[in-house]
Amino acid sequence: MSAAIKTPRGALLATLLVLSIFPLFGSDYYSELLTKIMIMAIFAMSLDLLVGFTGLVSFGHAAFFGIAAYAVVLVSPQYDPSSLWLVLPAAVLAAAVAAFVIGLFVLRTKGIYFIMVTLAFAQMIYFVFHDSPLGGGSDGVFINFKPELRIGETQLLDLGNAAHFYYVVLLLLVATYVFLRILLRSPLGHALAGIKSNEHRMLSLGFPVFLYKLAGFVIAGALAGVAGFLSACQFGFVTPEILSWHQSGNVLLMVILGGMGTLNGAAIGAFAFVVLQEVFSALTKHWQFLMGTVIVLVVMLLPGGLSSLTQRVRRLLVGGGSNG
Amino acid sequence: MDLTTFLIQLLNALQYGLLLFLVASGLTLIFGIMGIINLAHGSFYMMGAYMAFALTSATGNLFVAILLGIVLSALIGFLLEWGLFSRLYKRDHLDQVLLTYGLILMFEEIRSMIVGDDVHGVRIPEMLSASIQLSETLSYPVYRLFMSGVCIVLAVLMYWLIRHTRLGMMIRAGSSNREMVQSLGINIDLIYRLVFALGVTLAAFAGMLAAPVSSVYPGMGNQVLIICFVVVVIGGVGSVWGAFVAALLIGLADTFGKVIIPDFAGLTVYLLMAAVLLWRPEGIFRRI
Amino acid sequence: MSHEVNRRQFLISSAAVAAGLALPSAPLFAQGARKVRVGLMLPYTGTYAALGNAITNGFKLAVEQGGGKLGGSEVEYFTVDDESDAAKAPENANKLIKRDNVDVLVGTVHSGVALAMTRVAREAKALLIVPNAGADEITGPLCAPNIFRTSFSAWQPAYAMGNVMAERKHKNVVTLSWKYSFGEQSVAGFKEAFEKAGGKVVKELYLPFPNVEFQPYLTEIAALKPDAVFVFFAGGGAVKFVKDYAAAGLKSTIPLYGSGFLTDGTLEAQGEAAEGLLTTLHYADGLDIPKDKEFRAAYASAFKMQPDVYAVQGYDAAQLFATGLAAVKGDVGKRDELVKAMESATIDSPRGKFTLSKAHNPVQDIYLRKVEGKENKVVSVAAKALADPARGCRM
Amino acid sequence: MGELVLAARGLSRQFGGLAANKDVSLDMHRGELHAVLGPNGAGKSTLINLLSGDLPPSGGQILYRGQDISGWSPDRRSRAGIGRSYQRTNIFPAFTAFENCRLAAQSRAPRALHVFSRAQNYDDLRSAADRALEQAGLAARRDVVAATLSHGEQRQLEIAMVLATAPSVLLLDEPLAGMGSEESQLMVSLLQKLSADHAILLVEHDMDAVFAVADVITVMVTGQVLESGPPDQIRSSLAVQEAYLGGGEPDDE
After folding, report:
1. What is the top-level taxon of the source organism (chain B) (predicted)?
2. pLDDT tens for each residue of C252-271
C-alpha cells in the first residue's frame, strides 16, 4: 500500500506546539486568521480523502460544508445559545445525510463526468438556499448566539469566546487528522486506496465498490460538515456563497496546492491559500490576477503541489542520487 | 394562461434554449472530444461580449465586429491550447480543471484592466432593430428572432460538420481513442488545437451575438457558465445533439418555471437535472 | 503613500504569523500626531467595482478639499476589497477593525455584505459609515449609536415613488424585482405608499437574483395589462431589463417606473431604451444647488470623469465623519462626543442639505427624475425631507 | 465428475450488429478444467466477461449452482465464488505483491465498518494472502512493489490475487501469456493442482499446455461453439481441424 508516505513526526509535533501556544502571544486578528486556516484545513483534508485517497475528484464539496453551516442556523434557537451537544452532531449529520443522498446520484458516474455532476449538484444545493426562504435567501442569515457547552448549570465552553473557539477548532483539527490517519490504515482505507488504484479490479475481486465509495463520500461529507459547523460558528453568519462553486474550487485548489493524497499537504495548502489571499489582496486592486497566475503556474510547473517542492529541493541539494 | 400568452411563452422558451445551446455547444465539444472541463468557458463568452462592445465602438458595425471577433477569439483559443492545454494531456483531468479555474480569475482581471468595470450597451444594427407585434400589448424584437435563426443555422452546421465531414470523422475518432487515431497518421495535435479554438470561438460568438440584448458587464461570464454545465450534464458527455435537446428542455423548464412556480423559479432547472440523472446517470445522450 | 504603509505593515505582520510571533496591537508606524485611520471596505473587483471606486473617489475628494485632512486630522487609509462576497464579509470587516485598528469603517455597496459588516461593527463597537447599501435593517432593527448611513434606505425612494404613481392616476400596478431583501423592501415601501393613496398592486413578480432572463415576465406583464409597472433593478440587470422592456414594445403602452438605481450609471448602456423613464432617488442631474455644481467641477477635475450618486455618498461619508472629528479635535477616543456631533450634523451635500434621523439615516429630499439623453434630470421633489420609519430600531 | 457449478445456456452478446457470442452453452464441473480454444475474435474473452459479469449478456442464461445469475453484478458474482483473472495484467501497481493479495482476501471479509482497526492486523487475511503468494510461486517476492515485478511475475500475481479470494470457480483469461517457460511450467502444475477442487475455465493459446491439462475442451469460432469434448475427441475432430487447427497457426492474439 502507498503507506510509503512518511509522516514527519517532529514537524507535526512542532506545528501542534506552535498552534497551541499561538493565541497566548499572537494578536486577536491573527489568532482569528489562524482559526480560519485550521477550519479550512479540516475542510481540505476531508476533500483529500476523496480526491487524494479514493480518486474521486469532487467539484461540489462545498455543498456539505454549507449544509452543515445552515444546519447550525436552523437548529439554533433565536434568543438563546444552543447546546454544542445538539448543534455539532446535527450539523455533521445533516452533511452526512446530504452526502449520502447526493452520493447515490453522483457516484454512478465516473471520471470527468463525476467532476461535472458533483459541480452541478452542489450548484443545485446552492440554489436551494439561495432561492428559498429556508436560510434567509441570497442575503444570508445570522446566528445571534453561538453554541455553548454546558454541564448542568456551569458553562464549560462558549464558542462566542474567541479563545474557547480557537481551542475547540484546534482540538477538532487534531481529531480529524488522527481519525483520517486511522481510517486510512483500516480495511476501509485500504479498500478506498484499491479503488483509487484500480476500481475495475476491485469490482472483480468482489468489493461492492459503489458502497465503499458511498462510505468514503459520506465520511468526507461529514468531515466537511465539521468544518462547515465551525465556519458558521466563527462568524455567526451564513450565506449561500459558502457553498458556491468558487468555494468548491478553492478547497480543491488547497488540496492540489499542498499536494494531494498526503493529508499534511491539504493542511499546508489551506495555509498557503489563505496567506496568499491575504498577501495579494494587500498588494493590488487586481489581486485576483495574481491569484489566477499562481494557480496556472502551480498547475503547469508543480504537478505534485507544494509538498513536492521540499522533495524537489532536497533532490536538487542531494544531487539526484535518490529516486524519490 | 390563455393560448396567445402560452404560445408567446413557448417562443420565449425556445429562444432562450437556442441561445443556451449556442453557448454550451463549445463547452460540450471541448469536453467530449478533448476531455477537458473548461471552467473558463464563461470567460470566453464574456470576452466575446466585450469584443462586440469594443469592436462595434471602433468600427461602427456589429457584423464587422463579429467577424473580427471570430478571428480574434479563434486565435486566442489556438494560442491557449498551444501554450497551456497541449502540455497537460498526459495529466489528470483535475489539472485541466484547475488551469481553467486560474484562467477565469486572470481573464476577469484583464478585462477590468483593459475595459474597466462599467456596464456598456451594444447597439442593435439598424436593419434588425424593428419589432413584430404579437399581441395587442406585446411585440417581439426582430433581433431576438435573428439570434434564434443564427443558432439554428449553427446547430445544423455543427451536425453536418460532425456527421459528414472528414474533420468531423477525425473528431469523432479522436474522441474515442487518441492513440489509435494517432497511429493512423492523423495529426491529433492539430485536431485538438482546432477543436479548442472552435470551442472558444463558439463561446465568444455567443457572447457577441447576445451582447446587444444582454449588454456587457463585469461577472457576466460566471452567470452563463453554470447553466452551460447543466446543459452538458443533462445532454450527456460531449454530445452536441444532447446539448441541443438539453438546452431546449432547460429553456422550457426555466421559462414555465418562472410563470407557474415563481417561488422556486431558480430551482426548476436543477430539478430537471436531478430527474434526468436519476433516469440516466450519464445524461440523455452519451456520445456525439 | 498610505497604501504603501498598509502593505508594509501587512508584510511584516504576516511574517510575524509565519514565525508565530506576537504582534503588538498598537500601530507600528504612528509618528508624531496620531493620524486618523480610515478603513475602506468596498468592492474593487467584480460586478460593483465601478461603484466602489466612485465611493472611494468621493471620500478622497472630501479629504483633499480639507487640505489632506479630515476635520483637521491627517488621514491614513486602509483598504479591503470586499468582492461583494457576503461570505467573506465578517472576516474582511475584522481585518480592518482588528488588524488595522481603524477608527472608522466605511462600506459598502452590496446590502448583504453591509448587513454582515453592521453585525460585526455592532459587536466590536466600531464606528461604521455605510455609503451606499440600502437594506432597511441597517438603520432599522440593527441600528446602533456607532452605525451611520449617508445614502438612503430601500424604503425611501420606493415610498416616494408610490405617491408619485398614485398622483399620476395609475390604479393597477404590477411590480417586478429580484428576489432578495433589497428588492422586496423596495416593493414593500412602494406598496405601502401606493396602496395608502388608493392604488392597488395587482401582482408582485420576483425573479431569482441575479437572473436576467426577463422575457417570461414581460410576457406575463403584457397579459396582465396593468396601468403601470414598478421595478427595482441595478447594474447590468437594470440595463438589460430596460432594453428588454422597450424592445418588447411595452414602454409605449405600459409606463415603467423605477426606484433607486434603475437608471444610474447605466444610461450609456441603456441608450434610447431608457429615454423618458421616471425614477426616484436622493440625487439627480441638473439640481440647482451651488454645492452640487462646485462638487461636480472639483470631481471632474480631480478624476477626469463625471461624478455619480455613489461618489456623492462617499463624499458625504467623509463630510459626516469630518464633522465628528472636528468636534473632538481628532481624538477618536471621545466616542460619545464624536457620535453626538455626527448625529446632530447637518451635511452640506451635493444632493442638498440633509440631517440624520434618530436611527442615523439621512432625512432627505427624494427627487423625481426623468431620463433625458445621458442624464437623470430632476423633475420635482417627490418627497420633501423624507425620513425612513426605522421600524424595529430601539435607540 | 464433480457437481455442476457454473453453466452457460444459450448465451449471446451483441456489439452493435456484431454477434460476439451466439448461443453459447457450456458446463463447468468441480474438479474439471475446461479449456476454451479458438482463433482470434472467436469470442473467448467475451465469454469470460459474460460469465464474470463484466459484460451483461444480450440473451441466454448463466446458472451458478442452479441459480440464474445473469443479472448479477461482477462483485456479487465474485463474492459468490466466481473468481477471474485478466488477459491484460490488472493489478494494483503501487502496492506490494503481498498487499495486492491481502486486499483481495479482504474482499471475502468485508470489514468496511471496521474503521478503527488496522487492516494489517487481521491474521486471517494475512495468512490467506501469504498462502496465495506461496501457491503462485511468488512468496520470495512478497514485499516487492507490484509495478516493479517482471512481466511474468505480474501474471503470477494476477493468479495469486484470484486465489486469495478463495473462489470455487476460476475464469482464467490467458494466464500463460508472456510467461517464460519455467514460469509456464510452474503455472501448469499449479493449474493441475487447483483443478482437483475447483471448476476452472481456461482460455489459452498455448496448445501444448491446453492439451496437457484440460479435461474438456470447447472450440469456438466466430462467437459460436464449434465442438466440445475431451482432448482426444477434439484432436481427432475433422471439423476442428478444418476450421482451426488445420488452417495454419492460430493468431497470436
Report:
1. Bacteria
2. 999 999 987 899 888 988 99
Q: Any bridge partners for residue C372, and if so which?
A: C375
Count each helix (H run) and each strand (E run) in chain C, helices first: 12, 15
Chain C neighbors (3+ CB pairs < 8 Å): A, B
Q: Do C87 and A242 touch (CB under 8 A)?
A: yes
- SS3 label, residue D100: helix
- Can you name the residues that pair with C381 across neighbouring β-strands? C367
- In angstroms, how far is CA D176 from the centroid of its own chain? 11
**Those residues with Cβ within 8 angstroms of residue A246's Cβ, 6 or more apart along the chain or in another chain:** none
SS3 of residue B10 by DSSP? helix
In a domain, B64, yes or no: yes
Distance CA B82, CA B73 (A): 14
> Hey, is C222 helix, strand or coil?
helix
D contact test, residue of A204, A207, A211 with most D CBs within 10 A: A204
B75 within some domain: yes
Q: Regarding the domain with residue range C2-23+32-152+289-360, which homologous superfamily does it belong to in the CATH classification? A: Response regulator (3.40.50.2300)
Mutate which of D95, D96, D111 to test chain A, going by most A C-beta atoms within 10 A? Answer: D95
Question: Chain C contact for A283, CB < 8 A?
Answer: yes
Q: Cell digits for C134?
A: 440600502
- CB contact (8 A) between residue B1 and residue C216: no
Q: Would the CB atoms of B232 and A116 count as touching at under 8 Å?
A: yes
Q: If you ran DSSP here, which 8-state letter would residue D143 be given?
A: T
Residue span of the structural domain in which B248 resides? 18-125+141-279
Contact (CB<8Å) A282/C116? no
Q: Which residues of B touch A298 (CB under 8 A)?
A: 98
Give the start-to-end residue ranges of the domains of chain D: 1-81+169-175+197-253, 88-166
Q: What's the whole-model pTM score? A: 0.89
DSSP-derived 3-state class of residue C14: helix
CB D67 within 8 A of CB D15: no
- CB pairs B-C closer than 8 Å: 125
Quick check: A252 and B273 CB within 8 A?
no
Using DSSP bridges, classify how beta strands C228-232 and C256-259 pair: parallel, antiparallel or unpaired: parallel
Query: For residue D76, what is the nearest residue in chain A, using CA coordinates?
Result: A206
Domain residue limits, chain C = 2-23+32-152+289-360, 155-281+368-386
Residues 6+ apart with CB under 8 A from B52: B62, B65, B66, B69, B122, B207, B208, B209, B211, B212, B216
Determine whether the interchain pair B112/C45 forms a contact, defined as Cβ–Cβ distance below 8 Å. yes
C77/chain A closest Cα distance in angstroms: 12
Q: Domain C155-281+368-386 maps to which CATH number in 1.10.1040.10, 2.40.160.10, 3.40.30.10, 3.40.50.2300? A: 3.40.50.2300
Find chain D residues with C-beta within 8 A of A182's C-beta. 115-116
- CATH superfamily, with its number, for domain D1-81+169-175+197-253: P-loop containing nucleotide triphosphate hydrolases (3.40.50.300)
- Evaluate whether residue B114 is within a structural domain: yes
D228-253 per-position pLDDT tens digit: 999 999 888 888 877 765 554 444 43
Nearest-by-CA chain C residue for A36: C91
Domain tally, chain B: 1
D neighbour chains, 3+ CB pairs within 8 Å: A
Within-domain flag for B6: no
> Which of C223, C236, C271 faces B220 most closely, judged by CB atoms?
C236
The string of pLDDT tens digits covering residues C28-64 is 444 446 799 999 999 998 878 889 999 999 999 999 9
ipTM of the complex: 0.86
CB C45 within 8 A of CB A285: yes
Tens digit of each residue's pLDDT (9 = 90 or more) over B209-228: 999 988 898 888 988 998 99
Task: Give strand pairing partners of A102.
Answer: none
List the one residue out of B267, B275, B270, B222 whose CA is nearest residue B23. B222
